[in-house]
Write a structure and sequence with these properties.
The complex is a heterodimer. Chain A is an alpha+beta fold. Chain A contains two helices and six strands. Chain A has a single domain, classed as Roll (SH3 type barrels), CATH 2.30.30.90. Helices cover 17% and strands 42% of the residues of chain A. By secondary structure, chain B is an alpha/beta fold. Chain B contains 23 helices and nine strands. The chains are: A alpha+beta, B alpha/beta.
């Protein structure tokens, strides 16, 4: 059973698959060039309180993304 | 015929190290994405021909996301493809992500040679890459290198000649990633490694609680080391030199010059109680070198020493993450902390570094905040010199006042400027421990840069002060501004001269403040105002370059307004 949620609501230290990135093509392109695209496996490492940034692991790199960007990313477990 | 070589690749893969290796030109190298925001050019010899080598800001793709990345795209766009060569530098420990830009470059038809850099780090991570196979799959030469030690550089140069553009069909983004998956599958083998201490620390630093604790500890220790080592250098090295060796020499010179007259005034300055006082005499041979070498230089050395360590270890992006939330309230995002920190060294590189920010609005806010609320190390050193002998509360007070201005002004600018603050997206690099030799080379490079830029202006500043005093040119200015300076700020009317001289250099201006015989409240106010009011001319020039005439004009208006407000507030409300 697949469960969908958005990246900001996901618990820490969970491995998920990116399903959808809503938002403009500019944002999609930018995330795409850094390795975040639908179908990609990522791990959420942490998030900071009060709509702070979110750290994820994509492949071998650790990325930090702002709350507003992270909430556009839908993932499934 | 190759005429130009471009060094291209993702941020923080070691382009600048390689650039220095190829051309012998020293550039600043750090461990965070976005160190290079300006293009650097140098030359190398290629089979008897002089070829230009260009170090470009890092990018993740050919579609730019910041001003720094735009530069890369524009430069690559305009050149005649027959005359250029692209060295695509790839971080071997992160092959997959780096290949995306790599494939884009090859597909776009550039003649590409790949430099698989950081191969020394690969082993630590338990990665091995079959370069022969990779070369076959990509159809372009692939050379493993290690920029820091220089391994593979010679081979890279040898193989530059055989580079040709390849025809590779352009893929959609999605298919490109599929292709990359296949390539990585074929060439890379991973051996499982247990978590090292370094990885545990890396992990802890991106989590809110442990990260915050680590950052506070690091910042506190850094500040203590800067202060302690600078004071150590002053009391043990520079002051003894000036007082024991240099002063007797000057005293003799003073007697030869007859202890008065215009020349004595210019070179030695005024005698305080019949003696030379390095802080107050204001002569070209006394105060000018003393301010620069014994008051400011020790702080420049210790500040850049610590900053260089923090940069090279990879601490700054982690700090950026912790501060993202706060900076969002000022219309910026976390990464703006990097220009701000650089600004604490000198506002000029700080403002140039705002190019790593995405929007014009952010760059305006960041530049204005740096030029108003971030005192450069030269000024900070003078603030310590001015206020250090009183209770520590005053030095802390200046920082608190500046921080409050910084927060308030940022909040106001965020509210009144149209637009929104873009989101933060950065890569957090692994912790790295670069060789000490590299650290010292960078430190030396920065100190040399400081001396070359600062010394002539300091001497010019002291010279001008003397000439203007001699011809009583200040009287008019002090008369005009007396109501503001005296009435609103509670300072002696001559303090305006220091603020005016601050336009040349802040440290000379602070040196002038010493001579005015002010009480501690006045010193506190004037030091704070010196930081807030007009930045020095070098900063003005760079503000003009980065923001344009209109931006500079706006920033200047804000500066005048803030100076008036803060000066009056401090005078009437806080320190009554």
């Amino acid at each position: 059973m697949m469960k969908r949620t958005i990246l900001t609501q996901l618990k820490q230290n969970t491995k998920v698959r990116v399903v959808e990135i809503s938002g403009g093509s500019r944002l999609q392109g930018r995330l795409m060039s850094m390795g975040i695209y639908p179908g990609r496996e990522i791990t959420k490492l942490s998030h900071f309180a009060l709509r702070g940034p979110i750290a994820i692991k994509v492949g071998r790199s650790v990325l930090a993304l702002g709350f507003g960007m992270a909430k556009r990313i839908t993932v499934e477990m | 015929m190759i005429k130009k070589i471009f060094l291209v690749g993702n941020p923080n893969v070691g382009k600048s190290v390689l650039f220095s290796r190829l051309t012998g030109v020293q550039v600043i190298v750090s461990n965070y994405p976005g160190t290079t925001v300006e293009i650097a050019k140098g030359y190398m010899d290629l089979a008897g021909n002089r070829v230009e080598v260009v170090d470009l800001p890092g990018a993740y793709s050919l579609e730019p996301n910041s001003k720094a990345e735009e530069v890369t795209r524009d430069l690559l766009k305009q050149k005649d493809r027959d005359e250029i060569l692209v060295i695509n530098i790839i971080d071997a420990t992160n092959l997959e992500r780096n290949l995306y830009f790599c494939l884009q470059l090859i597909e776009a038809g550039y003649p590409v040679i790949i430099c698989l850099n950081m191969c020394d780090e690969m082993q630590h991570h338990g990665i091995s890459i079959d370069t022969v196979k990779l070369e076959k799959l990509l159809e372009v030469p692939v050379i493993s290198t290690c920029g820091i030690t220089g391994v593979g550089i010679k081979l890279l140069i040898d193989r530059i000649q055989e580079v040709k553009p390849r025809v590779r069909s352009s893929l959609s983004h999605k298919h490109r990633w599929q292709e990359i998956g296949n390539i990585v599958e074929a060439v890379q083998t991973l051996t499982h490694r247990h978590h090292t201490l370094r990885e545990i620390l890396e992990d802890a630093s991106v989590r809110p609680f442990s990260g915050m604790l680590m950052a506070l500890a690091v910042l506190y220790i850094s500040f203590k080391i800067v202060r302690f080592s600078a004071e150590f250098l002053i009391t043990r090295l520079f002051d003894p030199f000036f007082f024991n060796l240099y002063q007797p020499f000057l005293e003799r010179l003073s007697i030869i010059l007859g202890e008065e007259g215009p020349l004595h005034h210019l070179l030695i300055g005024e005698l305080i109680n019949g003696k030379i006082d390095f802080k107050q005499s204001l002569g070209l041979l006394t105060t000018a070198p003393y301010i620069e070498f014994s008051m400011v230089l020790p702080y420049v050395i210790s500040f850049y020493f610590i900053l260089s360590i923090l940069e090279d270890i990879g601490f700054l992006p982690r700090l950026a993450m912790l501060l993202d939330n706060l900076l969002h309230r000022l219309g910026l995002h976390g990464y703006a902390i990097i220009p701000v920190l650089l600004g604490f060294g000198c506002n000029v590189p700080g403002i140039i570094a705002t190019r790593i920010l995405e929007s014009k609005r952010e760059r305006f806010i960041a530049s204005t905040l740096i030029s108003i609320g971030v005192p450069c190390v030269a000024l900070q050193a003078m603030i310590f010199g001015l206020l250090g002998k009183f209770s520590g509360l005053y030095v802390t007070g200046v920082y608190l006042a500046l921080f409050a201005v910084w927060l308030l002004l940022g909040t106001v600018l965020n509210l009144i400027l149209k637009g929104y603050s873009p989101e933060f997206l950065i890569e957090i690099p692994p912790y790295r421990f670069p060789p000490l030799a590299m650290l010292f080379r960078k430190l030396f490079f920065r100190i040399k840069g400081f001396l070359i830029e600062a010394l002539p202006v300091v001497f010019l500043g002291v010279f001008l002060i003397n000439v203007l005093i001699l011809f009583r040119m200040f009287d008019f200015v002090t008369y005009i501004f007396a109501p503001v300076v005296k009435g609103l700020f509670g300072l002696p009317k001559e303090a305006i001269i220091a603020l005016v001289i601050g336009f040349l250099r802040k440290d000379v201006a602070a040196g002038m403040l010493i001579t005015l015989g002010m009480n501690v409240k006045q010193l506190f106010i004037s030091a704070t105002l010196l930081a807030i009011s007009f930045p020095c001319i070098a900063t003005f020039v760079v503000l003009y370059k980065e923001l344009g005439m209109k931006g500079l004009f706006k920033a200047t208006l804000i500066m005048i307004l803030v100076t008036l407000l803060v000066g009056t507030t401090l005078n009437f409300l806080i320190l009554r």
